[in-house]
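Feature request disguised as a bug: please show the residue count (221) next to uracil phosphoribosyltransferase in the output. Example input:
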Amino acid sequence: MSNAPKINVSSHPLVLSKLTQLRLHDLPAKDFREGIRAIGSMLIYEASRHLPVADVPNLQSPVAPFTGQTIPLRIGLSPILRAGLALEDAALDMFPEATVLHLGLFRDKVSLQAIEYYSKLPSQVTADIVFLLDPLIATGGTALAALNMLTEWGLKPSQIKIISVLGSKQGVSNVSEEFPDVEIYIGAIDDVLTEKGYISPGLGDAVSFSVKYHLCSGATS
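Example output, currently without the count:
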């Protein structure tokens, strides 16, 4: 599955070493937050590699005139509340002028289905490319709900890139099968999804993400 052209699993040594730290059950909350942000930055960097650039002529350095480059796209960042906020700062470091499109979704603890509680997308599409920020893809239900919200808004699946720290094989497959044109950039994919919907071995203990970020159950989406 991870060999699918739209699923990009990182093999970068820095991502792998940070992810190893995040799996430890006794990792201090500060280190956990910093690790999530660091991995997010690296994944967003990789996801941006093939964005187009346009020339900006007639610029002036202290020494001489030059032609620079810019990204000629409207960038959108869509964190899934509230787990996606863990990646929002990393994304804004890369794209400080991006439009932020918050989507409120949480996963019902019994049915494991995604439930929408907040959406304030503008009436018109305001982005050419949107980075959907969902740190954990467990069942894939929350990511799928967010993708449906964004495509109903007017985006094409090819205009959306998912940034995720960790996913289960089942969850990532569910997302990829329903939205094959959406690119997924992810730190790692674990084989096991437990009956309670937790990724195994996952990040720290089963509820580390919720505890260390004080998040709702959507953190294990």
